[in-house]
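Our collaborator T.R. sent over the components below with a one-line note: 'Predict the complex.' Nothing else. No constraints on interfaces, no templates requested, no preferences about which chain binds where. So this is a plain run: every listed entity goes in together, and whatever single assembly comes back becomes the starting point for the next discussion.
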Amino acid sequence: MVESSQNDNIEILTYSEVEEVGGYIGNFEVKIRKKARLVDLEKCTGCGTCYQKCPVKVPSEFDMEMGMRKAIYVPFPQAVPNVPVIDKEHCRMFTKGKCSICQKLCQADAIDYEQEDEIIEDKFGAIVVATGYDLFDASVYGEYGGGRFKDVISGLQLERLISPSGPTGGHIIRPSDGKEPKNVVFIQCVGSRDVEKGRPYCSNVCCMYTAKHAVLLKEHLPEVQTNIFYMDIRSPGKNYEQFVQRTMEQFGALYIRGRVSKIYQRGDKLIVKGADTLAACQVEVEADMVVLATGITARHDSKEVATKLGIPYDEFGFFTELHPKLAPIETVTSGVFLTGACQAPKDIPDTVASASGAASKVAALFSSDRMSMAPLVSTIDTSVCSMCKACMEVCPYGAIQEEEITLRDGTKKKQLTVLESVCHGCGACVSTCKSSCIMLRGMTDEQIFDELMAVAQ
Amino acid sequence: MEESNWEPKVIGFLCHWCSYAGADLSGSARLEYPHNIRIIRIPCSGRVDPMFILRALQNGVDGVLVSGCHPGDCHYQSGNFHARRKFAVINRLLKYVGIEPERVQFSWVAASEGPKMAQVIKEFVEGVRKVGPNRLFKDEKKDGE
Ligand SMILES: Cc1cc2nc3c(=O)[nH]c(=O)nc-3n(C[C@H](O)[C@H](O)[C@H](O)COP(=O)(O)OP(=O)(O)OC[C@H]3O[C@@H](n4cnc5c(N)ncnc54)[C@H](O)[C@@H]3O)c2cc1C
Ligand code: SF4
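Returned assembly:
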């Protein structure tokens, strides 16, 4: 991130959202809302006085609400840019109308409570979608406590507990009483491979991150015993299987094949009841902490983002690639590329590979002034077209657009035109046009009729 | 041609991305399907103009098979849905003019479904064989002559 921010050819617009996307490949017209962070990016020196002195404490989203942040804050230590943002919902200037401590203390005079959102409109040649994923909300699992037990945490919460910059400074302790856990249960496939919860797919990363967690736990707390309930261990990446084996053999993780049916509290312990399908028996584990390997789901706003970009999404909200094998990065909208977990659950190596792929696709696109493409595209004979626009409705790509031309006598006339760089040559428009004025090059009605007459002989 | 050794002549409009590839696959897998079908490759079942079907029947073809990608699998997102809608309309017209439903059929076959493509063609040709030669427009043509 830091390296990208220092590259002259990269402009990072943080705290900004794409509002509208128009145009087409090579000529996207994008409207971006740069939200008011109420701190002047240019003036702020990143000294940190403001968030040290701010009196309002709010649960930190980045620390999975296990730690606190201030109403003026930098989301996490490595954030780019290292400039705080004011959370209007909690800032006392907005809730109570007075405070301005940060403004008084800021030596750079960077705090501006009046700052307003800025709208940027610009042209772009290509768009790479890398919006990532949301974590499955495990509270729908009543049998795991449905969010009632403090010591039943998600894998991401454990990541924060392990992190040296996390809420506990890297000490792995139980959220309920701050004690170090001695016996920890992991449950895999939470919100994955579960048809009843509407998530029949495998989340791809949780088997491996659970193994990583078991290793890290053991490294931090050598006395700890880890117990992992799993359905199958999926470790098909490079060296992944060896990693899982090491987790068992060197780090003493106990893998139990089966599902957990119930978790309940007994004293300060959590009793985890489940099945061991390999030993064909019921098991009961007395745990200090339970970690749910919650799966990957599409972002809550993925459908709105897809609509803005004109790209399809699947039944779970993941964006759909042009072809699952031959064009896994492209989308049906030329010039819009996918990378990372917004397309399907992916781990970091796969995300980086797809991101490199998308970057190369864009670089290849921009490396020449002309685009080469399949010649089978539609054309409209505007002298016959009645402007009924039926073709516009059936075109899945929005390749048919209205344009205004000036005739020789100076009058203006509206007509339809096919954007050749956007047309994919499916021919839906041709068979829809009632006045037969749109034709698909290489597949015209005449050509097909000729073929037909020849074979009908 | 003598009635006794009549062989149905049918045309298949197969989508390039699925059924056409499926037919190819059945060929490379050495699966047999009746030689009565003449295949015309189209980019998408949505490209099929109802006129293609009518023109074929008018010129003495005994049956027309249109085959595209499974619903939701269209290479162009929605072409096969447009095709399905058109097909529903033309079906009623064909029924009205007295064309047996066996003569015009629509199917979904994916590129990986070689055996299914062979089976669909087999069943389609057998269906056409049962209803016999398409005389409707032939006779009309004669009357007009
Ligand atoms: C507990 C846990 C542990 C894991 N451990 C590992 C591991 O050890 N190794 C590994 O390889 N993988 C691990 N993973 C998987 C890893 O998190 C993903 O592979 C990776 O984060 C995917 O990267 P991404 O860039 O696609 O998405 P994300 O990391 O989700 O990034 C997407 C970014 O886009 C931003 N964004 C979203 N929508 C918009 C919008 N509309 N406009 C602007 N910005 C937007 C988001 O704020 C976010 O910053 C783990 C996952 C979990 C849950
Ligand atoms: S990666 Fe492992 S834990 Fe995650 S859903 Fe797939 S099988 Fe279950």
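Summary for T.R.: Chain A has three domains: 2-125, 134-297, 378-456.
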